[in-house]
Amino acid sequence: MQDRPHPTLYDTTLRDGTQGEGINFSVLDKLRIAEKLDAFGMHYIEGGWPGSNPKDAAFFEAAKGHRFHRAKLAAFGSTRRANVPVEKDPQVALLLEAATPVVTIFGKSWDLHVEQVLAITLEENLLMIADTVRYLKAQGREVIYDAEHFFDGHKANPAYALTTLCAAGESGADVIVLCDTNGGSLPEEVTAAMHEARQALDGRGLTTPLGIHTHNDCGLGVANALAAVRAGAVQVQGTINGYGERTGNCNLTTLIPCLQMKMELPVVGNLPGLTELSFFVDELANCPHDTRAPFIGSTAFAHKGGVHVHAVQKVARSYEHMDPAAVGNRQHILVSELSGQSNVLAKAATLGFSLTKGSQEVAAVLAEVKRMEKDGYEFEAAEASFELLVRKQLGRYQPLFTLQEYHCNYRRTGDRQYETCEATVKLRVGDRPEYTVAEGDGPVNALDAAVRKALRPFYPEIDGIALQDYKVRIIDSHQATAARTRVLIVSSDGHDAWSTVGVSGNIIEASWLALIDGLEYKLTKAR
After folding, report:
1. pLDDT tens figures, 446-471
2. In a domain, 140, yes or no
3. Which secondary-structure segment (H or E) carries 361?
4. 88 is in which domain, residue-wise?
């Protein structure tokens, strides 16, 4: 593939990505993401549609004073309106006011949209495309033409769909991007249509490069984009983490390593920054990270079965298709009831414990893991609890305190004029007893406040620990209200995060166990 032109990457997270359900960014968020994309090495960043909403207009105004080092910023919009001179179209004027070096416009390729949605003639649609491209080029802009619904239009009326591309090419478009807007195409259909598009343009003497914009409605967004690149596409549009309307857009966090690592087409110089970029965008979108995402998911290079772990300890590529460090990820060895000694040895080594295969210590750790998982524990996502388990089995655990008693109560008047949750904690640190009371929004919050109050005089650094996430899972739901509960808590000190787990038939007890593990883990590490 080395003799093929390296495709450019066009990110539309800030526009098409925000059309996904639950995805919203502030103006500041958009600026921060744009800066991150630029530093990563993205070639084009589509900032939004300045004519569609005040937020996008504010973003472009703010971006005017910002210098991008690698990426070109693009404003997105449509062709001129029907029967309106392009120079008098207010939406086109706003595209120019955005003052971006690149303008991307979309036009209709599907005769169904032209005649039944826009309710105009096929000829007027061609004029709208040509006039807008020609006008924007005359204003000194790089113009990318997005052929909306091209693949559906090509299936319905191939001659007309191809003619719309020629209208854009003859008017000076710098790139013509074929869009699978409904996401319903198969890779072989994309390949065939790409070849026909190239032939149609060549037949008019046009050398305009082709690009691809795919959606993921059939789960083929990335596959279709790769097929288009093999068929000659020199620009690929997509979003970080696959954000987008319905089921999303082509996922750039999957596409980029496929292009660079599998097809040997270098597209970015900072591929190891991909995982960090993915998490960064998820964080600003307030979306949970897809743990099973290819390449950048936390389980992408995770190994659980004992046979697998034994193999990767000898030869990593025996069960890994690439080096996880190449995309900024890392290998994860999971410990569970399926584990063998290799899992325990590998996991213990990452925690700084040097154990010997076949030793009593390894057997004891493995036996305790299997016993606890039988009771409902899971250590795959609770590495901090696993480290404490190992310390206890090896005799290297020193408890921070001795619990004597805790108690929670909740009081509420019938008219809700008064309600409160209160927790008391009685414990001993060394030979010194502590008895504290605290209120909270619920029993777990109240317990957290009470135990911190008790431990603060001895461990003042406890104030630097914050709870980030709290998840509850009912393990054996067939037991109804007698079911056991698993609680997973994620804690952080502002730099690092760690997870702990607690299991009990009582949700408060399960929460207490996970909560105390989280505090003990950090305070123990600090010592």
Report:
1. 999 999 999 999 999 999 999 888 88
2. yes
3. helix 360-374
4. 8-269
